[in-house]
Every structure is written in C-alpha cells, then in structure tokens.
C-alpha cells in the first residue's frame, strides 16, 4: 500500500539508484551567498514541479497499461528523476555552506542533500561500479529461489508456503535454502557497495551513509538513533509477553526437539520467512473459540449488495463525516478500480496525486471482501493527505516524516471497528461481539502489529552498524544473528557461519531501501488513533473506539495534514495529538487487555530469552 505522485526526489530515494557525489574536483570559487541559495531553492522547486507532472502521468500509464513500451518510458523518467536528485544534492551541499542562511533555508537544503539513498564518490569508475552492484543485487533477489521437498520454489511461492506449512522439516528446508541461495551470494558485493556508498556520503558532507539516512528527521542523527531505542523500550514488555506466549504454544505443537520451552524461538516456525509478522500461525496460538466473532465483513458487504463503487463511496463517506470535502469527479473518472480483462496492470493497491493538486486517484483491483474494504479506507487516507498539502512549496509536499504517510492510512484502517460497522448500517447492533471476543481479536492483531516492531527496528540498526564500521565485512552474519537474538529473541534453525549473509534474503537490504519508516508508522498509527478517540470523547476500551462523524477530530486532523513536511515533524504531531514526542504508550494502551491476559497465560513461564 503506497502513495505516488509525490516529489520525484522522494521517488529517487525510494529507487535507491546510485548517484555520483562529484564528477570532478571543483575549482576554487567564492563562497555562495544566502540570496544565491534561495535562488537555487526556487529554481529546484519550479523544475521539480514541471517534471513531476509528466513523470507521474508516465508512471500511471505504465502501472495501468503494462507493455514493453510503457516499461521503457517509466525507466527513462525514473533515470531522469534520479539524475535531478543527484545534481541537486550536490548543489545543495555547496549552498548549505553559505553564511546567513535561515533555519528554513537550511532545512530545505538538507531535504535536497539527503534525498539520495546510495551516493557514489569521485573515483573514476565508482559510479558505474556502484550502479552495477546495486542492479546485480536487486536482480539476484528478484530471481532468487529456495527449495521445498528438493524442488525449486520462487520467492512469492516460498512466502506463501512458509505461512501454510506446519511441517518443521519443510520450514527448515525453505528457510535455509532461501537464505543460502539468495542471501549468501550477495555478501561480497554488499561489502563493496557499502564502501563505495560511504565514500559518496563523505563527499556530501556526512560521516557515513547511515548518518545520511538518519539526517532526514529534523534532529541530529545520533539523537534520532536514541529516539528509536526509547520507542522500542516503550513497547518491549508487550513484545516479550507475546513472545513468551507464542513460544509456549509452539512448544506444545512441535515438542522440545523442535522448539524448547525457554530461550529464543526458532526463526522458521513463525509463518514468515523473516519472522516479521506472525499472523499466519494464528491457528497455532489462538485461544479456543476466540476466532468466532459472529460476523465476517466480506459477507456483510455481499449481503448488502455492495459493489466496488459502494465500497469506495463508503470509504469516502468516512472522511466526509469528519468534514473533509468530497473527492473530485475526476477521481471517479480516472482511477482504476477493477482489473481489466484486456491488459496487464499492476494490481498492488496505491494512491496517486498525479498533478499534485486535485488529480487524485487510487489504483486497485477491488474484490468485495474484508481486506479490500480496509485497504480502500487506508489508500484514501493517502489521497486526503496529498490534497491537504497541495498548496505548499514543492519540497514540502510530503508527509511530516517518512513514517507519517503510512501511519495516516493505518490509523484510519484501525477505525473499522464493530461500532463503525453499526454506524454505517453494515452490522446489526445486536450482532456486535461481546467483550469475551476481545482477546482473540487483539491477539490476532498483535501477531502482526506487535510482532513486527523489533524487526522494523533492527533492519536499519544492522545497516547503520555496517556503514559506521561497527560491523565489519568478516562479521556480517554474526552481526545479523546478534541483533535478531537481541531484539526479536530468535535463532536460526541451522548453524550459520561467515560464508552466509542472511540479511540479503530480505528485499529491503538487497534493494537498499531504508526501513525505519515502517517501525515509526507502526507506532504513530496508534498514537493518532488514541488522539482521535480522546478528542471524540470515547469512554470505552480504545480498541473499540469509533470517531466516525466527529467534525472536531476532522478539523484537528486536517490541521496536521495541511502542514505536510513544511515544519519539523514534532510540530505536525503536536497539531493533532497535543504532544511533540512519538510514543509507544498508545499502542500499549490499545493492547492493554491482551497484555493482562498474556501475563496470566505466562504465569510460571520464563520470560525473555
């Protein structure tokens, strides 16, 4: 679930295309002035705005009419956007040295300077070498295969099989073969890539690439790292309780020979290749009878004769009830709602703002089911955010930080509670599940949302330590295993050594996509949800809250959305929640009934690992 149509410098960062930090040693010249820096900023924003309109249209056509020709056009415009990001980052680094810059000018130049994920240095051939390595790693991942019962199996199929199999031997084979076949061969190239990118980051004025990544959060990079540690400590007790409970259930199912009663969990038993979300094994851990809540949203939709249009109109109605203006007529004319029968399209749900003004669209292949009903509410959250900040300068047309955009969609999706379904006429009031069903509902959510947190944190912690030199090339595997044990409480199913590189078996590592945004979004969604429920005067359990129809909540939310990235993210957070600090406490409150239940179930069990 993504949004597109944002500035191409953000797209360039997502593409992780290597960039040249310098092309030649600069000649001696006078230091730039603040006035020249402002002229540069103005020129950049004008050029980006003009470029984005065409590039967004090309990307839309490619996603909705997939052919060799549209692939080529999209690739061409992606390369052009990357080239612009490179050129502007270099110039921004130069202008950032100008005396007398305002805080606003410094911030805009930092946005431009940190828009590249992998910069290359001045050494002859370095840029091409970095580009070749980056492309090679991405291709190795995309073409990667594991095995199941000795037969090759693709990445998408192995993910599905990991969620379905309950055979420990099969799980071990899939986990080991994927990491051995996909991750291990990347090891040498990843070390080379790291060295080149670090040299490039130095050329842009950063100590290393990890520091460059952390510089985009309106605080010193070292303070941001401390913030992530604080947030993890906020929610760690909930994760440890979940880990303890799930470990006991896995021991009950598989026995001591597969999963011991104490210590770490075997990483291949949790229904996901990376053990980042555990919802696929809910059947193994579910309390008796907990899964029957008395209704299924998909069946309710079908009973009320909902089609794709009514589903989208209902999602729009949620935002309209908060006071937001209706979506433009062009939204209904230009969006892709159904999979066409006559051509290939990219069905993965996404939200678009093609002209960065009012040409809002979603792209989905909608089916009448619960998942797509939730996804529609989520994607429209991106559209309303995009429209809210449309009048800001180009560099500020984005979320307050890279965790905000996803968190907006996620917090709205949290609002699809039984109470909301009653309010919109989908669920009869007499059919609202009682409090006795809360444990199962919360446990199912926690198996994904809570289980993800340590993984969401450690992927970038691992890379920060590689970039800084704390983890050296001869310790890549040990460093990964150490963090997996420290944060997730997991161990590999088979012994690993320094011929391995299991981290490369994760797409975001092979593709050099920063990951902390997902950790932040998981926490922010609960913080936004609690703020909305408090403003609405909700008095019941937080996980039962509905703020549908509350114009006060809508007004506060709009104030935050309209800020886009124009102010440091604590300002935006304060506008809606009243606090300037991201916190894990709202998530803890949301899952408090589950935490109490888990503590009862875990009595006599050793906590931690």
Automatic annotation (TrEMBL):
Chloride binds at residues 217, 517. Zn(2+) 2 binds at residues 378, 382, 406. Gene3D superfamilies: 1.10.1370.30. One of its GO terms (biological process) is proteolysis. InterPro entries: Peptidase_M2. One of its GO terms (cellular component) is membrane. It comes from the Bacteria. Transmembrane segments: none annotated. Zn(2+) 1 binds at residues 378, 382, 406. This is Peptidase M2 family protein. Disulfide bonds join 347-365, 533-545. CDD domains: M2_ACE (cd06461). Glycans are attached at residue 149. The active site is at 379 (proton acceptor 2), 379 (proton acceptor 1), 508 (proton donor 2), 508 (proton donor 1). Pfam families: Peptidase_M2 (PF01401). Residues 1-21 form the signal peptide. Keywords: Disulfide bond, Glycoprotein, Metal-binding, Signal, Zinc. It comes from Sphingomonas gei. GO terms for molecular function: metallopeptidase activity; peptidyl-dipeptidase activity.
């Amino acid at each position: 679930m993504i949004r597109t149509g944002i500035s191409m410098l953000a797209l360039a960062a997502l593409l992780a295309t290597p960039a040249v930090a310098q092309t030649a040693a600069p000649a001696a010249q006078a230091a730039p002035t603040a006035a020249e820096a402002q002229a540069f900023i103005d020129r950049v924003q004008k050029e980006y705005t003009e470029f984005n309109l065409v590039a967004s249209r090309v990307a839309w056509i490619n996603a909705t009419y997939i052919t060799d020709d549209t692939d080529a056009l999209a690739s061409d415009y992606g390369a052009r956007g990357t080239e612009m990001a490179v050129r502007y980052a270099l110039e921004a680094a130069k202008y950032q040295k100008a005396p007398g810059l305002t805080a606003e000018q410094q911030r805009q130049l930092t946005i431009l300077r940190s828009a590249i994920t992998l910069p290359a240095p001045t050494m002859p051939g370095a840029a091409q070498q970095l580009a070749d390595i980056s492309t090679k790693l991405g291709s190795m991942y995309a073409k990667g295969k594991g095995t199941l019962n000795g037969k090759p199996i693709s990445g998408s199929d192995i993910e599905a099989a990991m969620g379905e199999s309950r055979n420990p031997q099969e799980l071990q084979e899939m986990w080991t073969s994927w990491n051995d076949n996909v991750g291990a061969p990347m090891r040498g190239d990843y070390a080379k890539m790291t060295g080149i990118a670090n040299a490039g980051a130095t050329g842009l004025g950063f100590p290393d690439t990890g520091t460059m990544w952390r510089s985009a959060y309106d605080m010193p990079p070292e303070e941001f790292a401390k913030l992530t540690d604080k947030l993890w400590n906020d929610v760690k007790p909930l994760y440890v309780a979940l880990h303890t409970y799930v470990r006991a259930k896995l021991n009950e199912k598989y026995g001591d020979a597969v999963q011991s009663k104490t210590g770490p969990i075997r990483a291949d038993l949790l229904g996901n290749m990376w053990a980042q979300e555990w919802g696929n094994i809910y059947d193994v851990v579910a309390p008796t009878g907990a899964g029957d809540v008395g209704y299924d949203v998909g069946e309710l939709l079908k009973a009320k004769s909902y089609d794709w249009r009514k589903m989208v109109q209902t999602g729009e109605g949620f935002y309209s009830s908060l006071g937001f203006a209706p979506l433009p007529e062009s939204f209904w004319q230009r969006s892709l709602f159904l999979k066409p029968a006559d051509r290939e399209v990219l069905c993965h749900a996404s939200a678009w703002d093609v002209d960065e003004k009012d040409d809002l669209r979603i792209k989905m292949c909608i089916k009448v089911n619960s998942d797509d009903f939730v996804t529609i509410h989520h994607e429209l959250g991106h559209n309303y955010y995009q429209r809210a900040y449309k009048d800001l300068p180009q560099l500020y047309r984005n979320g307050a930080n890279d965790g905000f955009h996803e968190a907006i969609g996620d917090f709205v999706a949290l609002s699809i509670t039984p109470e909301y379904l009653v309010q919109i006429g989908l669920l009869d009031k007499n059919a609202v599940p009682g409090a006795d069903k809360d444990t199962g509902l919360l446990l199912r959510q926690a198996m994904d949302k809570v289980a993800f947190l340590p993984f969401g944190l450690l992927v970038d912690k691992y890379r920060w330590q590689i970039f800084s030199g704390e983890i050296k090339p001869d310790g890549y595997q040990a460093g990964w295993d150490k963090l997996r044990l420290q944060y997730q409480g997991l161990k590999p199913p088979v012994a690993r050594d320094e011929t391995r590189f299991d981290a490369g078996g994760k797409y975001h590592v092979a593709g050099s996509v920063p990951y902390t945004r997902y950790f932040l979004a998981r926490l922010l969604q609960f913080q936004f949800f609690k703020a909305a429920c408090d403003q609405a005067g909700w008095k019941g359990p937080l996980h039962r809250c509905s703020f549908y129809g509350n114009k006060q909540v809508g007004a506060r939310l709009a104030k935050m959305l309209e800020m886009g990235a124009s102010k440091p993210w604590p300002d935006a957070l304060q506008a809606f929640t009243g606090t300037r600090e991201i916190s894990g406490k709202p998530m803890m409150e949301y899952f408090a009934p589950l935490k109490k239940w888990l503590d009862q179930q875990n009595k006599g069990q050793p906590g931690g690992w």
